[in-house]
Amino acid sequence: MEKLVTISVKIPEIVYKELLIRIPEGERSSFIRDAIIEKLQHTPKPDKILELEKRISQLEERYGEIKKCLGELEILTYEHGTVNPYTFCIDEIDRKIMEYLLHYKGATTPELAEYTGTNRWLVLNRLRKIQRTSKKQLGRPIVEYYAGERTGKRKAWWISQEVIET
Fold first, then answer.
1. Of 7, 23, 24, 81, whose CB neighbour count within 10 A is largest?
2. CA distance 159 to 154
């Protein structure tokens, strides 16, 4: 057995009285030691959790890169109607933006700001975040900015029809 170290622990008086009643006098130290060891076995090490989180995020990034490359090579194709665009929305503002884009197929940031009741900079940041997140997860963004004119709108954001479900 390993070398034992003495520690001092403050516990509530009620717990101490319960310990005196339930555990015989000669076995209390081993009982407390076993309880601590058992509790430690069920508690994950923080370093391991951080390491696992890092590894998972690295795997997600690599997976996204692979999907992106396959999409660029047109090996990975998207079946029409397989992606729900609302999965990239984090709150009601994002859902309103997506709802408007799905209905009108495209919009400028001032139009979206008016519809959502916010300012255009917030809308722009949300659109960029949706674009980044979808590109990372799908390898292709579900919203795209096009500065030229398309169906009567200039400098507008457009929903990618081949990726989303209708």
1. 23
2. 14
Structure confidence at residue 112 (pLDDT): 94
Nearest to 117 by CA among 146, 137, 135, 92: 92
Position 74 scores a pLDDT of: 55
The three state secondary structure string of the chain is CCCCCCCCCCCCHHHHHHHHHHCCHHHHHHHHHHHHHHHHHHCCCHHHHHHHHHHHHHHHHHHHHHHHHHHHCCCCCCCCCCECHHHHCCCHHHHHHHHHHHHHCEECHHHHHHHHCCCHHHHHHHHHHHHHHHHHHHCCCCEEEEEEEECCEEEEEEECCCCECC
Is 124's pLDDT higher than 60? yes
pTM for the structure as a whole: 0.52
Q: Which of 85, 65, 100, 81 lies closest to 162, judged by CA?
A: 81
Indicate whether 78 pLDDT > 90.
no
What single letter denotes the amino acid at residue 164?
Answer: I
